[in-house]
Amino acid sequence: MMKVLVINCGSSSLKYQLIDMETESVLAKGLCERIGIDGSRLKHTPAGKDTVVLEEVMPDHNKAVQMVLDALTDSEYGVISNMQEIGAVGHRVVHGGEAFSGSVLITDDVIKAMEECSELAPLHNPANLIGIRACQKLMPDTPMVGVFDTAFHQTMPEEAYLYGIPYEYYTKYKVRRYGFHGTSHRYVSQRVAAVLGKPIEDLKIIVCHLGNGASVCAVDGGKSVDTSMGLTPLEGLIMGTRSGDIDPAIMQYIMHKENLDIDQMMDVLNKKSGILGISGISSDFREVESGCEAGNPDAIRANNAFVYHVVKYIGSYAAAMNGLDAIAFTAGLGENNGKVRAQICSYFGFLGLTVDPERNAVRGVETIISTEDSKVKALLIPTDEELMIARDTVEICR
Fold first, then answer.
1. Which residues is 89 bridged to in the sheet?
2. Which helix (H) or strand (E) holds 315?
3. How far apart are CA 133 and CA 7, in angstroms?
4. CA-CA-CA-CA dihedral for 121, 270, 230, 388, to nearest 10
5. Cα Rg for the chain, rounded, in angstroms?
């Protein structure tokens, strides 16, 4: 059974995990920070050992990938004897557009299709492609697999993905809802079925991926039928710094008042809004949580607005699926903030959902947090996108 290197490339960062697929255990993981910027460094953590910090100039992603491979094969803190032990590389790719409804072996044609999706995700896809090319250059004989954030949502019906704008914008430019966090939503929904001991085909599940970026997904019979993010990750829930859903006319109104152009306005919606914008405190939910505990009205206001938006999406998806068996919470906030989980679930007493306060008083542990007699189950499921990427990679490289 092979060892898979999972790569998640950002514009100035590169996260990685090396997973032994025989045991599905992480051999090492790490992060290259500040690629192409002063002060670049690699944090490398072999399983069961201390983190090694290597400060070295990384002018580009080629150098970053080389440093990762060097760290993995290092005689002191490495975990493999040579690069040939890496059987395949799985790459996280943010946007696959309509071209990809599943993970694929990366070929020249696949790269071309990924480039065509780049204008839909200008911050992410070019970085993902740079990571793929850097790996191909250094590991020319190792198979590479692309796993797309959008792929899981390609099962959405037309009525869920179309916007109320002229249809020609869809036919000409593919303007539609794509959704993101698909790899996480897929992993978590599969775990829900396993924990409940029921076939996923028989379940209606709502997954709440609540982190700095946040989305809700309706999974009916194992397939995504709707999700809160749209053409871009800006739509949907109130997030760390993103506005989520707003009346589009707000943009024109503020642009006139503040004398902003469209790029400046988008910067406000992407980077200065959400929890940060409402609270004025921070985009970090942990600081908002502390603020709520201290009785800070700004923190409480932001927290309550966030919760309310999540609740509205869950309610609408329960209606869209004509039923609900389980709600799952995952990602940074979903896994670690029991108060927010309880607050969200408190709205669904009418569906027969009751949270058990004792079961809910945990962080980051896979567990059922609802009571035994709760008609709708609530679960905490730590996500593992890297493992999902590695599993797809093995499946495709068989």
1. 5, 144
2. helix 297-320
3. 12
4. 60
5. 21
d(CA 100, CA 152) in angstroms, rounded, equals 9
User: Annotated binding residue at 284?
Assistant: yes
226 is an annotated ligand-binding site residue: no
User: What's the pLDDT score for residue 158?
Assistant: 97
| DSSP annotation of 245 | S
User: What pLDDT is stored for residue 118 in this prediction?
Assistant: 83
Spatial CA neighbour of 95 closest among 35, 176, 187 = 176
- What pLDDT is recorded for position 1? 66
Beta strands in 201-338 (DSSP E): 204-210, 214-220, 223-227, 326-330
Residue 28: partners with Cβ closer than 8 Å, 6 or more residues away: 17, 18, 44, 45, 46, 47, 71, 72, 78, 79
Alpha-carbon distance of 125 to 32, in angstroms, equals: 18
pLDDT at residue 264, as a whole number: 97
The residue type found at 283 is S
**Residue 348 annotated as lining a ligand binding site:** no
pLDDT at 308: 98
Q: Is 258 helix (H, G, I), strand (E, B) or coil?
A: helix
One-letter identity of residue 105: L
* Strand order from edge to edge, sheet including 104-105: 52-55, 41-46, 25-33, 14-20, 3-9, 86-93, 144-148, 104-105
The reply, when asked if residue 213 is annotated as ligand binding, is yes
* Active site (catalytic) residues: 149
Report strand pairing: 104-105 vs 144-148.
antiparallel
Q: Which residues of the chain have pLDDT under 50?
A: none
Looking at residue 119, its pLDDT comes to: 84
Q: Are 235 and 244 in contact (CB under 8 A)?
A: yes
pLDDT averaged over the chain? 95
Cα angle 133, 138, 140; round to 5: 80
